[in-house]
Every structure is written in C-alpha cells, then in structure tokens.
Amino acid sequence: MDCPAEERMIRLALEGRAEVSGLVFDLPGRRLQVAHDGAVGPIADRLSELGLGAVLLETCAAAEQPLNDVAAANESKTLKTLLAINGGMFVAELLAGLFAQSAGLIGDSLDMFADAAVYGVALYAVGRGVHLQMRAAKLAGLLQLVLAVGLLAEVVRRFVFGSEPQSMAMMGVACVALLANVSCLALIHRHRKGGVHMRASWIFSANDVLINAGVIVAGGLVAWTGSRYPDLLIGSLIGVLVLLGARRILALRA
C-alpha cells in the first residue's frame, strides 16, 4: 500500500462493513490502522484477497476505536482554520451582497455560512465513531438543502420586485472569496478520502470554488449588458449547485 489508488481499493473493500468503525492510512509508512469490533480474521482475509501483500503487525480488541491522536489532531486543526475563514467571509459577503444588491453574492454568503456550520459539525465529529460522523454529515447536508431552497426563493423575490446589482462590487468581493475558498480547498485536499464528515467538507469546498467563479462571470456580464438578469441567473445556478451538493452529501455512506 503506497499510493492513493491502493488506498481507494482498501476503502472499497472495508468501508461499509459492520465491524469496521474507522481506517487510518499512513501511505509513506505503508501501514493501515483498522478500528474494528470482534475478530480481526475476516478483515485480514479481505485485505489478503486484494493481493497487496498485507501483513498483520498487531491487533487489540475494542468495542470502538477512534481515529489515532495524530490524525484527529490534524483534522481538527484543518477544520478550525476552515471554520474561521468561512465564518469571516460569510459576514463580509453578506454585507457586500446587501450593499451591491447582488443575489449572487448573497447566495455565496449563505453558502459560506452553510460551510462554516458544516465545518463546525465536522469538528465535533473528529475522532468519534463512524456512526456519529455519518450523523454529522447528514446534518450538514440537510442544512445545505434548507439554505439552497431559501436562496432560490430570494432569487424569485428579486425577479418579481426588481434589483440593481453593482457589477464591480460583485466581482471584487467574489475574487476575495475565490482566494479564500481555494485556500480552503488546498487545506482539506489531503482529507478528501477520510471519514464521511471530511468527505462532506471536501464536497462543500469544491462547490465553493465553482460558485465564486460563477459570481465573477455574472458580475462581468452585468457590467457588459447593464442587465440584472445575469446576477439572477447565477443566483439560480448557485441554488441548484448547492442542492446537488446537498444530495451528494446525503447519499454518502460510511
């Protein structure tokens, strides 16, 4: 086991088994820690079937083993940073969106708020059992679903009652948000195949980069055409993208 492809093979083989409650990979050290209930025999047999030369080094029985301290500490540190970035950007983008009358910016700010909530929930789940991690991911998906519906309702309201989005403010704030979200994506990249709570966080961060790019494009179209419809269109697309992200998260399996 020395590459992401082999890690993926092992995850497919072991994740979802009732007796397996957690996996911790050390690719440079070619080691795997499996938190499990009951006998180790079936797990060892399953690994042997993959043909990767698996050798059992040690085992100890436990009702439920958490992720090791180093992995949990790394996840916790990453999530705290992501929580701080997204919480700050939520406030900044919401105020800018209200000032610029931009559905796109308001939508992005709500997505930032959803992300901050997701990272907070994931932070709570770090180092805990796989079942609690699953519940944390589901809660995050439901929150994103609610915010997506709220955003689409706001787009409809602005379509009916009108708005005058400010293109320069849209593009400027969206560029700052894009830099923030690219930083978040880089931070969580190494955790993207971890527990279900971390995979949910990865989906959120990847969606954010696409959303920011869409707001920048919408701002340019508003400036070019003098119309509010590009902003309403991108606000609608953000709502749909957030809905799809919620669906992916709710479909995650441990």
Q: What is the fold's blueprint, element by element?
A:
Layout: H1 4-14, E1 20-26, E2 31-36, H2 41-49, H3 69-100, H4 103-125, H5 130-161, H6 167-188, H7 196-225, H8 229-250
Task: Work out the helicity level.
Answer: over 70%
Low-confidence stretches: 63-67
Annotated CATH architecture of the largest domain: Up-down Bundle
Structural class based on helices, strands and sheet pairing: mainly alpha
Shape: elongated
Number of distinct helices: 8
**Number of discrete domains:** 2
Q: What amount of the residues lies in strands? A: 5-15%
What's the CATH class of the largest domain, please?
Answer: Mainly Alpha
The major sheet is characterized as: 2 strands, antiparallel
Tell me the radius of gyration. 21 Å
Here the CATH topology of the largest domain equals: Alpha-lytic protease prodomain-like
